[in-house]
Amino acid sequence: MYTINEVAEICDLSAHTLRFYDKEGLLPFISRSKSGKREFSERDLELVKLICCLKNTGMPIKEIKHYIDLFMEGDDTFETRKQLMIEHRKEVLRQMSELKKNLNIIDLKIAFYNANGNDMPS
Amino acid sequence: MYTINEVAEICDLSAHTLRFYDKEGLLPFISRSKSGKREFSERDLELVKLICCLKNTGMPIKEIKHYIDLFMEGDDTFETRKQLMIEHRKEVLRQMSELKKNLNIIDLKIAFYNANGNDMPS
DNA sequence: GCTTGACTTCGATATAACTCTAAGTAATAC
DNA sequence: GTATTACTTAGAGTTATATCGAAGTCAAGC
């Protein structure tokens, strides 16, 4: 079991942020110790990592919550979750392609700088 | 010459946003018609595209302004601008690498869904 | 028993980047 | 000459994601 601070450390978040996520309904799966402290199992930790992955690829908290809600509903939502993930994968690919496009622009710019500014278009 | 709305269309921004950028000091190079309207030359358009590229790769407006300020100062800032661009390129590579890492996580997740949830880790 | 870590509520504050409103002016296009 | 487009100032409001602080409670470990 992990404490909130351990999870925070591992996932590069603050305990504050984790509680904030909890409040937003992103962590309904977390159990509590008899004294009321959050206890993260290995599986919980993996879910938090997945949440971070989704967040870091631009999924808004509300959509992540939707995914988690489906997850909590159980096996009936299996197909829906799978489709959501497949859709999000497309979005990540879109981001990568845009990033590549922008990298090209930057590379071109640096190439112009290396050519000592000759024919610099802008 | 392009009007503000044409540039907005081309760069997928609103005229509002372009005026906002202008106010923030990102577009000091734009000239005006005798009636006071903004006139974007081909070169200006390229610069706006560069600004969008920097913005879309996460550079904050203040840093973009700094770059534009250097640009307006002229050839003396050539080396500085080149170094800035090289540094930003590293940042873009970092983003791409993180995106790839996250794509892997998503792919793994989808693979588990395709395995019908067997051994689903989370 | 004292320190540390965790908990709660609640609200303030921050930050970035818009986004919009209003009210009035001025030139352009048909 | 009317509709469209663009301009101005100045400020209010929005969205998303935190981030912080206060104030008090509670339990565990040394």
From TrEMBL, chains A, B:
Entry keyword set: DNA-binding
DNA-binding in keyword set: yes
Residues covered by the HTH merR-type domain: 1-70
Entries under Pfam families matching the protein: MerR_1
InterPro entries the UniProt entry points to: DNA-bd_dom_put_sf, MerR-type_HTH_dom, MerR_fam
Signal peptide extent: none
Keyword set includes DNA-binding: yes
SMART domains the UniProt entry points to: HTH_MERR (SM00422)
A GO MF term: DNA-binding transcription factor activity
Protein name in UniProt: MerR family transcriptional regulator
Source organism (scientific name): Pullulanibacillus pueri
